[in-house]
Amino acid sequence: MTQEQINQLKGLVRNVPDFPVPGVQFKDLTTLFKNAAAMRLLEQGLVELYRDKAITKVVGIESRGFIGGGVLAVRLGAGFVPVRKPGKLPAETVKMSYAKEYGKDTIEIHKDAITPDDVVVIHDDLLATGGTMLAAYQLVQSMKPKKVYINFICGLTFLNGRDVLPKDVEVTTLFDF
Ligand code: AMP
């Protein structure tokens, strides 16, 4: 993707002040997702990053991580695995609790979702404090895959979320604020 295309995507993100709580500047990516040309660019950008990495599973974090994650899985010829909020997954799960930018949360993954043969990319829409992704990474790592990558559509650099993620893991974003 060219810098111009990246800027195009970035320019479509809507800033919503004081959502979901006062003081949080919420980056709303639905204004990017609803634009057909932007979805094409997003698909292209994500695929360019991971097409040569022999990815076998894309893990998407509920719920906005399901959008780019689903697109990426199909385009890479990989499977898709959801990480969900508690009580949503029907079969046996492993869970992890964590702190996030505005509160506490728990996430789950199916216990049989990842195998030691897998090369995984974990995807979410946005990196804020990194707490959600760190918890997802720990869940995925507990299943001992061959390799794990981490990807976001965008990152909020001023929250320093990259610093809480393991140093030895390759983390990418398409653009940052
Ligand atoms: P964190 O665990 O703090 O990195 O939070 C990441 C998760 O919360 C992602 O799934 C984001 O979609 C969401 N999130 C947190 N802060 C924001 C924000 N300022 N704007 C948009 N989404 C956010």
Give start-end ranges of low-pLDDT stretches: none
Percent in helix:
25-40%
Please, how many domains? 1
Overall radius of gyration: 15 Å
SS-based class: alpha/beta
Shape: globular
Topology, number of strands = 9
| Intertermini distance | 18 Å
* Largest β-sheet summary: 5 strands, parallel
Number of H- or I-type helical stretches: 5
CATH architecture: 3-Layer(aba) Sandwich
Mean pLDDT: 96
The amount of beta strand, in percent, is 25-35%
Structure ligands: adenosine monophosphate
Oligomer state of the chains in this structure: single chain
The level-1 CATH class: Alpha Beta
Strand-and-helix sequence, N→C? HEEHHEHEEEEHEE
**Which strand order do you get reading across the main beta sheet?**
4-3-7-8-9
What name does CATH use for the topology?
Rossmann fold
Describe it for me?
It is a single chain. The protein is of the alpha/beta class. It has a single domain (3-176), classed as Rossmann fold, CATH 3.40.50.2020. Helix content is 29%, strand content 33%. It contains 5 helices and 9 strands; from the N terminus they run αββααβαββββαββ. The strands form 3 sheets. The chain has a 5-stranded parallel sheet with strand order 4-3-7-8-9, sandwiched between helices. A two-stranded antiparallel ribbon has the order 1-2. Strands 5-6 form a two-stranded antiparallel ribbon. β1 and β2 (25-28) form a beta hairpin. α1 packs across α3 (36-50) and α3 crosses α4 (65-76). The radius of gyration is 15 Å and the shape is globular. Bound molecules: adenosine monophosphate. Residues 24-27, 61, 64, 100-101, 124-133, 161 line the site of adenosine monophosphate.
